[in-house]
Design a protein that fits this description.
1 helix; six-stranded antiparallel β-sheet; mainly beta; seven-stranded antiparallel β-sheet; 17 strands
């Protein structure tokens, strides 16, 4: 089961606090994109007072692209790591972003296919977490598709650990002492979204 997001800025999950606010950290999740027509944010942490102060794990689905991106912005433009290969719409795939430092972010697709970026970028005043779009001073880049098994770690996972996640191992079993949030994003019988949060 998974949580469906219909590509609307009114349908997302958010929390007025973030389990991580500064590097190092890791985001990971499974996704199934229904369309390759826009950029879509899977997981974001941001400053709700400013439109250009955030970290996001997103899909670059514009202009024919189809890669996973680990993206940071601190007001001077995006610093983006791109996965080395693209994904296919309407197919379940695994995305991960690892932020080791202000100058080291890596994007992964399906446990590998990584790409890195070393531009120095340090967003500040991070105060909100969201799944399904970016929540900052507005909302943007909503997901059109499904998400599942979202994990956030307050550490930079290794390439070997990302590969394990891409093989389908639960986030609960990958460096559990650093796992600060886990949301399977399951649906209950009523159809309402339900989430389980695991705090370290």
């Amino acid at each position: 089961m998974a949580r469906d997001y219909p590509g609307a800025t009114t349908d997302y999950h958010s929390n007025a606090a973030s389990p991580v606010t500064a590097v190092p950290f890791t985001f990971a999740c499974w996704f199934n994109a229904a369309a390759l027509t826009t950029r879509q944010t899977l997981v974001s942490i941001a400053d709700t007072a400013v439109a250009t102060n955030y970290h996001t794990l997103r899909l670059n689905t514009a202009a024919g692209g189809s890669n996973v991106q680990a993206r940071s912005n601190a007001g001077a433009g995006d610093s983006i790591a791109n996965s080395s290969t693209g994904f296919t719409d309407n197919v379940w795939s695994h995305a991960a972003g690892v932020w080791t430092s202000a100058t080291d972010r890596v994007a992964y697709l399906n446990g590998g296919n990584s790409g890195s970026n070393a531009t120095s970028t340090t967003p500040t005043s991070i105060d909100t977490l969201a799944f399904g779009l970016t929540v900052h001073s507005g909302t943007a880049q909503e997901v059109n598709g499904s998400l599942a098994e979202v994990g956030i770690w307050d550490a930079a996972l290794t390439a070997a650990e990302i590969a394990i996640l891409g093989d389908g191992v639960s986030p609960l079993l990958v460096r559990p002492a650093s796992l600060v949030l886990y949301c399977p994003l399951l649906r209950g019988l009523s159809g309402a979204a339900s989430s389980t949060v695991k705090a370290a």
